[in-house]
């Protein structure tokens, strides 16, 4: 019971950190704060017993650090992302907890590849799909912070798509 409470509190703090990251004015600041938020999400999943979410978010932390230090819009970014996505699939299989694991494996590996692409509208559209899958995962592992976080990500992506739609 105490693990559940600790996991929920840390997850909610992670959601707050994610929300704060959306307010950052540079990509590096966004990635830095997102990395802290992902670390909190990772710890939350650990306390909730969500093995796949825990392991795959460790890879997300590594991904964020790599993207933080990468320069430009080169194909090197996409190759790195594909390699990280493959690692996610392997770790997802290793941490398999049934069909529910498939939700986060697909979502985070696909999201990792889309993060490496230069078009923000493409990323926003992919977030609607990937965050929906992660939202479902969070329902199954009962992560209140995760549910709120992915709901906000979906709404924010929809607003961004509408706001930056080519006229």
Topology:
Layout: H1 2-21, H2 27-48, H3 51-69, H4 75-94, H5 99-115, H6 120-141, H7 144-163
Helix pairs in contact: 1-2, 1-7, 2-3, 3-4, 3-5, 4-5, 5-6, 6-7
Task: Write up this protein.
The chain has 167 residues and is mainly alpha-helical. The chain has one domain (2-163). The chain contains seven helices and no strands. It has helices spanning 2-21, 27-48, 51-69, 75-94, 99-115, 120-141, 144-163. The longest helix has 22 residues, at 27-48. The radius of gyration is 15 Å and the shape is globular. The N and C termini lie far apart (52 Å).
User: What class would the helix/strand composition place it in?
Assistant: mainly alpha
Mean pLDDT: 90
Q: Write down the domain tally.
A: 1
Anisotropy-based shape: globular
What Rg is obtained from the alpha carbons, in whole angstroms? 15 Å
Taking pLDDT < 50 over at least 5 consecutive residues as the criterion, the unreliable ranges are: none
How do the SSEs run, as a string of H and E?
HHHHHHH
Biggest sheet overview: none
Count of separate DSSP helical elements: 7
State the distance separating the first and last CA atoms.
Answer: 52 Å
Beta-strand content estimate? under 5%
Give the helix level as a range of percent.
Answer: over 70%
Q: How many beta-strand segments?
A: 0
């Amino acid at each position: 019971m105490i693990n559940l409470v600790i996991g929920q509190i840390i997850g909610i703090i992670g959601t707050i950190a994610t929300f704060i990251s959306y307010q950052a004015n540079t990509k590096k600041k966004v990635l830095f704060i997102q990395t802290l938020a992902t670390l909190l999400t990772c710890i939350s999943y650990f306390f909730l017993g969500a093995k796949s979410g825990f392991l795959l978010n460790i890879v997300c932390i590594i991904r964020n650090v790599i993207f933080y230090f990468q320069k430009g819009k080169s194909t090197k970014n996409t190759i790195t992302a594909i390699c990280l996505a493959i690692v996610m699939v392997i770790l997802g299989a290793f941490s398999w907890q049934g069909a529910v694991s498939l939700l986060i494996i697909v979502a985070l590996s696909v999201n990792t590849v889309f993060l490496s692409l230069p078009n923000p509208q493409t990323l926003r559209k992919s977030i609607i799909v990937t965050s929906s899958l992660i939202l479902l995962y969070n329902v199954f592992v009962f992560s209140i912070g995760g549910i709120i976080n992915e709901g906000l990500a979906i709404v924010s992506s929809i607003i961004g798509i509408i706001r930056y739609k080519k006229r």
